[in-house]
Specification:
By secondary structure, the protein is mainly beta. It has 3 helices and 14 strands. It is globular and about 70 Å long. The N terminus is likely disordered.
Length: 321
């Protein structure tokens, strides 16, 4: 083989490598559920508000800290009853276990865990074993079809009211929707590419706003019959209005300008595109507000008074079996 032929072959091979690398892996983003599919999931929803006021200017220095937190961990069975190619899947959800803790300014107001035998005597335990039906669209959107039977529980007392709220449409949708999915009809995505959507901030944020979430397909694994996709999400503040018409609000009013704000909004989706099974779906928002001021009579060896407020929202859905 002469030198020119060897060079030609090397060039051709190199071009082939470039083409292959440029193509990337592809996957159709859709929840392709099938009748009879049965999966057990654990979903964790957590909202935390932290408050810390440090006053080194005082003598002695003072620090005030408190935390308000709501933690809900629900284990449930999801069984697909029927599937419509356009409308999505009708699924029966059965609650298997709950951990629910409400803390208000460091004081625990409610603490229930179905894994504790003594807690199963509490009114809130009436939720265990309850079932309701939802529609889970191919784009991850959820609507409640029938929860009437599950809601036939006592609403007496604080436990009863919390139990009823646990089965409200809004709470059910929050528990089961897969917000990471592209809106509308299924789309085919190439590795390194993705999609965007603008959504309102989670409830409880001190200065509500809209966020643009950017979802990027990082990689595709597995065989062609059931590819597993790994999607990364990064969210940033957006001035664009939400499609549903939600308005950007600022509950802090003029005080918002007093704070330096730091934000982190990230998430991940691991999805079997062949079976429509979500292996993991997680999104976490952390917003920190920081304000500092030195009093007029501040001593030079003392730092400024500092107020730190932090909001954390975490949603984590994981397949158990």
């Amino acid at each position: 083989m002469n030198r020119k032929m060897r060079i030609a072959m090397l060039v051709a091979a190199g071009l082939g490598l470039v083409v292959m690398a440029g193509c990337g892996s592809q996957a159709q983003m859709s929840l392709n559920l099938k009748p009879g599919d049965a999966t057990t999931y654990k979903v964790t929803t957590e909202t935390i508000k932290d408050f810390k006021f440090e006053q080194p200017s005082m003598e002695p220095p003072k620090v005030k800290e408190d935390q308000t937190k709501t933690l809900a961990v629900v284990t449930f069975d999801q069984k697909v009853d029927a599937v419509d190619p356009k409308a999505g899947a009708i699924a029966t959800i059965t609650i298997k276990g709950i951990e629910y803790i409400v803390t208000d300014k460091n004081s625990v107001k409610f603490d229930f865990n179905s894994a504790r035998e003594e807690d199963m005597k509490k009114p809130f335990a009436q939720l265990i074993g309850k079932s309701y039906k939802i529609n889970l669209g191919r784009d991850g959107k959820v609507s409640v079809l029938d929860a009437a039977e599950a809601r036939k529980i006592s609403d007496a007392g604080y436990d009863g009211k919390l139990a009823q709220a646990f089965l409200a449409d809004e709470r059910i949708v929050e528990r089961h929707q897969i917000m990471a999915m592209p809106e509308g009809d299924p789309i085919t995505v190439t590795s390194g590419k993705g999609w965007n959507k603008v959504v309102p901030s989670p409830a409880g944020l001190l200065a509500p706003k809209n966020y643009e979430k950017t979802y990027t397909l990082e990689k595709v694994e597995g065989g062609k019959d059931n590819p597993v996709v790994f999607v990364k999400m990064v969210g940033k503040e957006s001035k664009e209005p939400v499609k549903e018409g939600t308005k950007t609000m600022d509950s802090m009013g003029p005080f918002a300008k007093m704070f330096d704000t730091q934000e982190s909004y990230e998430g991940q989706l691991v999805l079997e595109t062949g079976t429509g099974t979500v292996r993991k779906y997680q999104e976490k928002l952390v917003v920190t507000y920081l304000a500092s001021e030195a009093p007029a009579d501040q001593k030079p060896d003392k730092g400024p008074d500092t107020l730190t407020m932090r909001f954390t929202y975490n949603f984590d859905l994981a397949k158990v079996q």
